[in-house]
Design brief:
The complex is a heterodimer of chains A (531) and B (309). Helix content of chain A is 31%, strand content 20%. With 531 residues, chain A is an alpha+beta fold. Chain B has a domain of 214 residues: MetI-like fold (Orthogonal Bundle). The chains are: A alpha+beta (531), B mainly alpha (309).
């Protein structure tokens, strides 16, 4: 028995020794820290690689771009560029950099750091998701194919000026420079670490990486060289990763984290409780969720069938299922997107009209199409609501929930998916990012998954694309959108609204409609640890 | 015995090769293009084509498998599409947390199972036995995700006695260990109870009892060693399963282990990581099977002699 006790003690000591290998987080006493939690691990901190919110929230904090968006808006603001000029034909973009910007290792940021970053994105061996955004720079094609050692269209007249020459007009090119892909990175650090740069990032943003234990936590601390006086207001930001939605909520209730999402089951209680409701923060995202109808597959080749589906589906009911976290879509473009026109009326819920349209189109009662969707609890719930609505007009909808990857594959195949439930989130605040990308015939087998084609729409989109005059540009896009809405390749469902809840001691945390929240102006007032 | 060991080793290698082929084929049968996984939903066809070229995805499947197998034999499980890190390194980073949790859970479930099984067998057909039957069936029936969440709400949120998830030291081990161990403990107690019942009915036990030894003494000194054999086999295999990750428990408790890594890999269709975690799990299970087989053969000569005959 004594021997067993000794063995047991030995095992326990070994286990505890193993446990102590998890290092405790070292923060100075009294540090003003923002505690966050997220389900997904941070995939990468390398700005050439990341293309997701989980990576971008930290990349935005660590790196600076030439221009950026406002904290809660999609208006362009200077970041490291103090001013810029765009040629009338939108083919030359000149930026003048501030001279006091430094990387977190103390080295001054110059225009060469921006050129290097974009060349790194274009380099095929980087396998960057951002390549397509910078292909329009003159000389990019030669650089990608290896025929040139540098991108000739990026000119550096001096260390604080950078000029981009494009192969053709692209008025939204400046928006492409707000993406972390185009953030300045120090060549010497990136080349020293190669593929491991993600774990040794050095940027000129408000924060620098302090610690990253994959699967556990990531910690940023203030960058002492950050150019903006008095920012950041926090000493550190710590995110615990792998925390599922329910656990995140428990941690919020226990005061362990400062910002949390609100689980669907808790949302009604939060909104009924004035104390909690006052702590919620929300913003409409520049996203449209929709049901795509394949315009090359019968009977969706008939515009009357597509319109009937628009009338038959009760969008408000979908929003009720989402606890009201969204606004009904009347067209393609979300409110908040420049170029949005509120007088596009869309399709009100009208099952009688839907039934008549289906009859006119000769669709027999009991028609049974298949709706492809992501195998996700919320999506399935919404699809079931759509199923009920369509049953009232004699359509027996079958649901096909599949994983995300296979769904994306399936919808790109011609004549494969007659109906699919998807959403589109803008990358840039411009109608082009919805209308050209999703409805132009040029985008078949790319992102035009409904295989919609209309020569007049294609003509309007092509005419609008090079125009810099916003009034004229938006007018053409508006005409294109009206045709698209009338021809209804989508059932226009809703624009989601993002909600989070903060602790009472967290201030100036805002949600951007298109990008992850910025953290440099957020501050925390003194409070007891753990609430 | 050497012949037996060699045969078993040969089978183990065949199983691992078979697993690698099945995993590889399944990964490519899934209608998801790895280039889309890497480049994202919005990528244009040019970017996708470039990535396919980079990864050698245009090569025939058998060539890709041969390259993969060659790398695996050198300990290189490839690079994660999403995290862009070595799969071997990712598994190594997570294995420690899973191993600690698995060993703690196994130790506790064996203590629970053996204690409950013995007490139940000692008081066979009496109130204690029936009570323990109900308790153990209850423990087996509780879903892990529910038990874990309840333990977190009570122990973490209301009592504030334990951390709310994460791997932050010895105290953070207690709730996930309990979550894993309670169910297995209940199961082991039923196995031991049945096994002890069978052994206690054998001739040599009746002889011992006939000689005047107490039931308790006979159980501890003579029956226990034999009755524990099936339990050890089961625990050995369970330990391999635990070591290859416990997805639900690790997800509920934000435990940075292999199970959560595999879950994330599947969710993101990160094929090299899926294959890496599956192969690693298969390796652990094959090794555990091998050890159990060898242990059994060593403990029971009839098995190895039977094989030779």
């Amino acid at each position: 028995m004594i021997r067993i006790a000794i063995y047991f003690r030995l095992v326990l000591i070994l286990l505890l020794a193993g446990c102590s290998s998890v290092p405790p987080l070292k923060l100075p006493p009294g540090a003003r820290v923002l505690w966050l939690a997220a389900a997904d691990d941070v995939p990468t901190l390398d700005p050439a690689i990341g293309y997701d919110s989980a990576s971008w929230i930290f990349e935005q904090a660590i790196f600076d771009t030439l221009v950026r968006y406002g904290d809660a808006t999609v208006e362009l603001e200077p970041d490291l560029a103090t001013s810029w000029e765009i040629s009338k034909d939108a083919t030359t973009f000149t930026f003048h950099l501030r001279r006091d910007a430094r990387f977190s290792n103390g080295r001054a940021v110059t225009s060469a750091d921006f050129k290097y970053a974009i060349e790194r994105v274009l380099k095929p061996s980087t396998r960057s998701k951002g390549t397509e955004y910078y292909r329009g720079i003159a000389g990019a094609a030669d650089f990608i194919s290896g025929r040139a050692k540098a991108v000739s269209g990026i000119e550096l007249p001096d260390p604080y000026t950078i000029i981009f020459h494009l192969t053709g007009p692209d008025p939204i090119f400046i928006h492409k420079l707000t993406m972390p892909f185009a953030a300045a990175i120090p060549r010497e650090v990136a080349e020293k670490w190669g593929e491991d740069f993600s774990h040794h990032v050095v940027g000129s943003g408000a924060f620098k990486l302090s610690e990253w234990i994959p699967g556990q936590r990531i910690a940023l601390v203030r960058n002492p060289y950050y150019f903006a006086a008095g920012l950041p207001k926090l000493d550190a930001v710590v995110e615990m990763v792998g925390v599922n939605e329910e656990l995140e909520w428990l941690k919020y209730e226990a005061g362990e984290i400062d910002i949390s999402g609100i689980p669907a089951a808790e949302f009604p209680r939060v909104m009924r409780t004035p104390r909690l409701k006052a702590l919620t923060i929300h913003n409409v995202t520049v996203t449209t969720d929709y049901i795509g109808m394949n315009c090359q597959m019968a009977p969706f080749t008939d515009v009357r069938v597509r319109q009937a589906f628009n009338y038959a589906i009760n969008k408000q009911k979908l929003l009720d299922l989402l606890n009201g976290r969204g606004v009904v879509a009347r067209g393609v473009l979300p409110p908040g997107l420049p170029g949005y026109t509120p007088d596009v009326k869309g399709y009100p819920y009208d099952p009688n009209k839907a039934r008549r349209l289906l009859e006119d189109a000769g669709v027999r009662n009991g028609f049974a199409p298949v709706l492809w969707l992501r195998a996700d609890q919320t999506m399935i719930l919404l699809a079931q609501s759509v199923q009920q609505d369509l049953a009232l007009v004699g359509v027996k909808l079958a649901l096909k929930p599949v994983a995300w990857g296979p769904l994306l594959e399936a919808v790109r195949e011609p004549n494969n998916t007659e109906l699919f439930l998807l959403g589109w989130e803008a990358d840039f605040p411009d109608p082009e990012n919805f209308l050209e990308v999703l409805f132009s015939k040029r985008q078949w087998r790319s992102n035009n998954d409904t295989f919609y084609a209309n020569p007049e729409v294609d003509r309007l989109l092509a005419a609008a694309a090079p125009i810099s005059n916003l009034q004229l540009r938006f007018k053409l896009y508006d005409q294109a959108e009206r045709i698209i809405v009338q021809q209804a390749p989508w059932v226009f469902l809703y624009h989601p609204v993002s909600y989070v809840i903060r602790q009472p001691w967290v201030h100036d945390y805002v949600i951007n409609p298109m990008r992850p929240s910025r953290l440099e102006k957020v501050w925390v007032s003194p409070h007891k640890a753990g609430g | 015995m050497l012949h037996f060991v060699l045969r078993r080793l040969g089978f183990a290698i065949l199983v691992l090769i078979g697993t690698s082929i099945i995993t590889f084929v399944v990964a490519f049968v899934v209608p998801a293009d790895p280039a889309v996984t890497i480049a994202g939903a919005k990528a244009d066809p040019q970017t996708l084509a470039m990535i396919r070229q980079q990864l050698g995805l245009n090569q025939p499947l058998y060539m890709q498998y041969a390259h993969y197998l060659g790398r695996v034999l050198h300990g290189d499980l490839g690079r994660s599409y999403i995290m862009r890190e070595s799969v071997t390194r990712l598994i190594a980073q997570r294995f420690g947390a899973t191993a600690i949790l698995a060993i703690c859970a196994m130790v506790l479930s064996l203590i629970l199972g053996i204690a409950m099984g013995m007490i139940a067998a000692l008081y066979k057909d009496r109130a204690i036995d029936n009570g323990l039957l109900v308790v153990s069936l209850g423990l087996i029936s509780i879903p892990v995700f529910w038990l874990g969440t309840m333990l977190l709400v009570v122990g973490g949120l209301y009592l504030r006695s334990f951390p709310l998830g994460g791997f932050s030291g010895p105290r953070s081990l207690i709730l996930p260990t309990l979550t894993l161990a309670l169910g297995s403990g209940g199961y082991y107690s039923r196995i031991l109870h049945t096994s002890l019942g069978e052994v206690m009915g054998q001739d040599y036990i009746r002889t011992a009892l006939g000689k005047g030894l107490s039931r308790r003494a006979v159980m501890f000194k003579h029956a226990m060693a034999n009755a524990l054999l099936p339990l050890i086999t089961l625990a050995g295999l369970d330990l391999a399963g635990l070591l290859s990750g416990v997805v639900l428990t690790e997800t509920v408790f934000d435990w940075p282990g292999i199970g959560r890594l595999a879950f994330e890999a599947i969710f993101n269709l990160d094929i090299p990581l899926i294959m890496g975690t599956v192969l690693f799990s298969a390796f652990l299970i094959v090794i555990a099977n091998l050890v159990v087989d060898l242990l059994y053969a060593w403990l029971d000569p009839r098995i190895r002699l039977g094989e030779q005959g």
